[in-house]
Design goal:
This protein is α+β, with helices and mostly antiparallel strands and 568 residues long. Among the domains are: 217 residues, no CATH class; 173 residues, no CATH class. 22% of the residues lie in helices and 26% in strands. The strands form four sheets. Strands 1-2-20-19-21-17-18 form a seven-stranded antiparallel β-sheet, covered by helices on one side. A hairpin with a 4-residue loop joins strand 19 and strand 20. Helix 8 runs parallel beside helix 11. The longest helix is centred in the last third of the chain and has 16 residues. The relative contact order is 0.14.
Amino acid sequence: MKKSIMALALAFALGAQVPAVPAAQDGGQAVAAAVRIGGSGAQVLTINMLSDYTVDVVTAYNGVQSDERAADLINRAVADGKSSVVAAINGGFFNSYYDAGKAISFPANFPQNSSAIVQNGRIINLGGEQNVFGFTYDGKAKVDRVKMTVDLCFRGEYAKITPWDVNRYNANDASRVSLFTPKFTLPFTPRAGSVAVTIKDNRVTAIDENAGGKTMTIPKDAVVLLIHAAPLEEIKKQDKMPRLGDTVDIRYTYAPKKTEDAALWANMKTIAEGGRMLVWNGKNVARDTSFNAKFDSDSKQSATGKAQRSFIGVNKSGEVVMGTASSASFVEIADYLIGIGVTDAVNMDGGASSMLYSSGSFVTSPGRKLATALVIVKRPQKEIKPPVYVDEPSGWAKTWVDSISSLLPPALSGGYQSNITRAEYVRVMVEFMQKASGDSIDVIAAKNSVTTAGISFSDTDNFLIRVCAALGVMSGTGNGQFSPDRFLTRQEAFVMIRNALSAIGVDTSDTEIELPFKDNADIYPGALEAIQYLVKSGIIDGSAQYFYPKVELSREMAYVIVAKLLAE
């Protein structure tokens, strides 16, 4: 009796008690079997993935820097009160040896999650090329070696930055570029020289160029791109540096070793990194270094060493097979799985982390708290892949922008809602002048008897900028500077349009019109005639109540104006 009481008390202390979790009742869809692997006991579940089943990777306290009782982890998967749990197994590896008796802090003392995780199609931890289990939005389970990347496209495809990883930080690495999401819950201090770019609703909302040395906490409603000093110079040199107001297309890519499954991995809802690949294409690959080289240096992860293990895979019928072995090697587990028809399988964290749950109770109770769990859930409402941000012009601008898409250089073909800079606008004006006149920019300059001799700016030596300055299309901003990266206001843009028209021989003298805008007083006197000409010619809508002369011009508005001019 004392032994029973002590065992029960120990189970509760370790978080291994039977949780009050609603279990699915599906007439034996999760089939349990007690078997022997490597001469020792093992528990194996085979789950027929019905149409209303899905797989969630659940993280402790909905973050990536904590651990939690297995019972509570499983409960998180059915927090909506409508779903029920079919089965569950522990997730990937994490630092379970932090000092739980002390306060959690970063980076000194916390249960760092060391496995890649994808929730709802988005990477929330790490990334890179790993051995993983995945589950699609339309109910298909897969195991493969997959390269997981995230790209942030600012102002379109041209200005693309690829972070090293997600929600992982190493202040000692000077060359690091990392993406942080609200799942990164602990405050931390970036290294000196770091720049932090805050992105909310696919737009850059803040840039802190002096983020280094200051305590930072990731906002609950945004993501943060942190760029260390070393890569910063190269990013700026390539004109990829994010700008305030930029649109951002965040793209997640999952490239499998089995290239024929690329379309399936593009539709992945859930991905959990494991350890050794056990079975691949029906073969025992536990010793194969092309999958498992990084584990060979760890004696605990030896291919032939026996220990308590957890594993998950897929059989020939598409059923999920998962289980725990009390003392077996990876080679032995792989052999067993192949024998029961499993085609692909990977091991998950083991030892005291091993956990298996089915039919409302633990089949294998963990000996410690867990960072993650893979939970098969019966969910009444079919899950739909969230809409992907599409980098395209707004509805009002799309037809016009599409009509001149062939004119736009690659660097400007995207980021349509981003504001346009002075240097970018020069590119647009040059393309417009060449198209409208039928002459190259060199011929236009020759016809106007101008050269770039004597035209220089201290902050740019761009040839097109110097030609446009010589033509009088646009001038500098004072003190010998052009300010190429400064955003352009609407009134500045319209002055340049009129000047460009004049440079190709268009008569722009007809400015006899009274402007109807309520904010006429805000228009700079030097811009007045240009705006009058463009209103009278119908390029600017004269029926609008306000002109907003000092508002910065978006790329798509600049393109619409050019398209309208070419349509005249």
